[in-house]
Amino acid sequence: MAQPATWDHPEPLAVASAPVPEYGSGSLADLLPTLAAGMGVPGTTAAIPELTPADRNCVFLVDGLGWEQIKDHADEAPYLHALLGSSRGGTGRPLTAGYPATTATSLASVGTGLPPGAHGLPGYTVRNPATGALMNQLRWQPWTEPKSWQPYPTIFQLAQDAGVHAAQVSSPTFQNTPLTKVALSGGTFLGRLTGEERMDLAAEQLAAGDRSLVYTYYAELDGAGHRYGVASDTWRGQLMYVDRLVQRLAEQLPPRSALYVTADHGMIDVPFDEEHRIDFDADWELRAGVALLGGEGRARHVYAVRGAENDVLTCWREVLGEQFWVASRDEAITAGWFGPTVDRRVHDRLGDVIVAARDDVLVIASEREPKESAMVGNHGSMTPAEQLVPLLEVRS
User: 360: burial class by Cβ within 10 Å (0-12, 13-18, 19+)?
Assistant: First the structure.
């Protein structure tokens, strides 16, 4: 008698197979502590061993400028591409952003020198345990008292207390935002509208102290990627402009300076079809037992109805597990996704189920998140295109 056919169903991705960021030795959170330690700032540690100390340090963070994107666009970014070998102290290697690879999380890691499990901004939107509601950590909505949400001092504050000249040069729009307060405060904030003005002022601020720590920022590359994609002419035009800005700043460095060009994340384009964009709002299986959907398309925090946590985990793993790493909160913490440890105040901000994309796919929410669901370029997960960021270096 013939044996019945067996269903060869692929196994879900193992949580342990996710490429965890290099916390403690080569992540964004390790950059400013390393630079500050090289200037003798108490309470900081040189975590990235490849870097050589300098008296004056400038970090130029370009939102969305991933390592893979620089490698793939030598024609549009010849200056940046030529600096790839200088990255991470001349090793030619990138840093990792941290998980999730998203702006609010990464800027907090840069400014505090802490991984997400400590600083407590572990996603685009996360649940506030005190209210039970989702909190958007980029836009800071609904408003939450900043100091209680992120209580640690920034590296800029520590540097200023140690007599280092500290300054942030960015768009005036960001001067008084809660995210700036919790992530980048300390020293002097100087708002300038154009990229050229920021570059020139950053160079002036570097020269303003015998020991200086200066941060400057450019956001429009990321905006072009979200709206039009990294394959678009608009994005490539922005990359060309960024290339010129970096060269402009590099050519003005005062003596004894080091310029580091980095980013908060990279980006990938995701096709507009049902295979690549799985709509939570239209999928009854994924919605079953879910109280709140947080995070973003490639890095989801899923909050279950009380008592349904295991059922939600099982369902999401069965439905998505071939294309996403799907972990329980405890599994993600144990695997180190958010850093070596997770503070008690941060624990319940994390989803009961945490979902990170491996393939070029999204979990969108077309009704709840119409703007985010319409974005061409996306980021958040642990793939090289999103996670790897440059640490290009120019010295004077």
Answer: middle
Strand-pair category, 353-357 with 299-304: antiparallel
The tokens describing 396, both together, are 């004077």
Does 142 sit behind a cis peptide bond, omega within 30 degrees of 0 on the bond before it? yes
Q: What tokens does 121 get?
A: 């901004």
Number of H helices, E strands in the chain: 18, 18
Give the span between the Cα atoms of 314 and 107, in whole angstroms: 33
Taking 70 as the threshold, does the pLDDT of residue 2 lie above it?
Answer: no
At residue 11, the pLDDT reads: 86
Range list of β-strands (E), 147-246: 165-170, 188-191, 212-218
Distance CA 298, CA 270 (A): 10
pLDDT digits (tens, 9 = 90+) for 26-46: 999 999 999 999 999 999 999
C-alpha 227/C-alpha 250 separation (Å) is 29
Q: Of 279, 278, 265, give the one whose Cα is nearest residue 380.
A: 265
Q: For residues 12 and 316, is the Cβ–Cβ distance under 8 A?
A: no
Q: Which of 110, 97, 25 is nearest to 68 (CA)?
A: 97
Q: Say yes or no to pLDDT of 5 above 70.
A: no
Tell me how far apart the alpha carbons of residues 313 and 96 are, in angstroms, rounded to a whole number. Answer: 27
| 300-331 confidence digits (pLDDT tens) | 999 999 999 999 999 999 999 999 999 999 99
Strand 362-364 with 277-279, pairing: parallel
H-assigned helices in 66-128: 67-72, 78-82, 87-90, 103-112, 116-119
Per-residue pLDDT tens for 192-225?
A: 999 999 999 999 999 999 999 999 999 999 999 9
Q: What is the number of residues in the chain?
A: 396
Residue 376's closest CA among 278, 239, 232? 232
Q: At what angle do helices 195-207 and 233-250 cross, to 10 degrees?
A: 20
Q: Among all chains, which residue has been given the structure tokens 């020991």?
A: 211
Q: Would you state the structure tokens that stand for residue 376, as one six-digit string?
A: 């061409």
Give the tens place of pLDDT for each residue, 259-305: 999 999 999 999 999 999 999 999 999 999 999 999 999 999 999 99
Question: In the 8-state DSSP scheme, what is residue 262?
Answer: E
Cα 181 from Cα 269, distance rounded (Å): 32
Helix, coil or strand: residue 303: strand
Q: What is the pLDDT of residues 220-265, one digit of tens each?
A: 999 999 999 999 999 999 999 999 999 999 999 999 999 999 999 9
